[in-house]
Amino acid sequence: MTVADLIKKGTDRKRFSFEVLPPLKGTGTERLFATIDKLKIFDPAFINITTHHSEFVYKQLDNGLLERSRIRRRPGTIAIAAAIQNKYNIPVEPHVICSGATIEDIEYELLDLQFLGIENLMLLRGDKAQEDKQFKPTPGGHEHTTDLIRQVVKFNEGYFADGTPVKNPGKKFSFGVACYPEKHEEAPNLEMDMQRLKEKQDLGAEYAVTQLFYDNSKYFAFVEKARAMGITIPIIPGIKPLAKLSQLTVVPKTFHCDIPEALAAEAVKCKTDEEARQLGVEWTVAQCKELYAHGVNNIHFYTVSAVDSVAEVAGKLL
User: Fold this and answer.
1) Angle, vertex CA 154, rays to CA 151 and CA 156, nearest 5
2) For the residues of 103-159, what is the DSSP string, one character each?
3) Is 217 helix (H, G, I), strand (E, B) or coil?
4) Which residues fall within 8 angstroms of residue 138, CB to CB, at 6 or more apart?
5) Between 20 and 30 A from 271 (CA), which of 35, 127, 147, 198?
6) Contacts of 19 (CB under 8 A, 6+ apart)
7) Residue-wise over 111-137: b if at least 16 C-beta within 10 A, else e?
8) Taking all residues of the chain, what is their mean pLDDT, rounded to a whole number?
9) pLDDT exceeding 90 applies to what percent of the chain?
10) pLDDT of 13-47, one tens digit each?
11) Packing angle between helix 145-156 and helix 190-203, nearest 10 degrees?
């Protein structure tokens, strides 16, 4: 069953999904599997696995000059997705991104995923490289998520990107996309950003998962506006509990979302990370209960640096 089917079928049941990172290069799977072991008891609808493009790093040579080379710190998204699906029998949804990949690279990713029996994808543009001031598409790659969607749709129809027919088309991919209740950082305004979401839907996206947020009123307003624009696909709220004191300033900068005044006022009173974590759990439980009260039954959790908090929240909700 696809993620889209699970979302549609689960309208009368409270369920959650969560996002994980592939292991750092060379560290193995133990920590990741420990995370899944902690969360699988809550019967997640699916597990989302991020993809990270390679980055430039600089190494000082003996002559004092700097040598620039590319490394990929978190390789193996496809392999780890297959390992999770095989080990836990939970639907997986790897990210497929434009960033750092050519059209041909993506084509081979789709083939590998098809061979492995993975049918759910999250299609994203991906972040800009750290060394770039703005997003730069890889030569021979895509600039926008909508271009990536067109490639996947064409693949589903039995054609490679160059128009060559696929001799033995496999099972079609089902895919979701991202959306931003507080606007993507590069969008000129929310309205234009939402037009992008409408375009993604019209091209074939079956659901959307939001960037994390802490103010439910912004999510409710976003969904209401989306429906008025003709966006009918499910919009799953993405939630991440505040887990340490430093996140009060780091989260708004990194994820471009506001910390509500009430949460910030309580957070500055916290003297330790554990106090901040408990506040984050309490806020998230209340936030999720309000979402449930408004008929939202599927909630997506971002687990990075917040696994214990997510488990505690889920235990209080389900």
Assistant:
1) 110
2) HHHHHHHHHHHHHTT--EEEEE--PPPTT-SS--PPTTS-SSHHHHHHHHHHHHTTB
3) helix
4) 98, 99, 100, 101, 102
5) 35
6) 47, 48, 49, 50, 300, 301, 302, 303, 304
7) eebbebebbbbbbbbbeebeeeeeeeb
8) 91
9) 77
10) 789 999 999 888 778 899 999 999 999 999 999 99
11) 10
Instruction: Give the pLDDT confidence score for residue 57 in this predicted structure.
Output: 46
**224-228-230-235 Cα dihedral, nearest 10 degrees:** 0
Tell the residue number behind the tokens 């916290």, with chain if given: 270
- In angstroms, rounded to a whole number, what is the distance separating the alpha carbons of residues 40 and 42? 5
CA-nearest of 70, 58, 67, 63 to 25 is 70
The verdict on pTM exceeding 0.85 is yes
| C-alpha torsion sign, points 305, 311, 314, 315 | negative
Q: Where are the beta strands (DSSP E) in 168-239?
A: 174-179, 208-212, 235-239
- Which of 200, 197, 201 is closest to 187 using CA atoms? 197
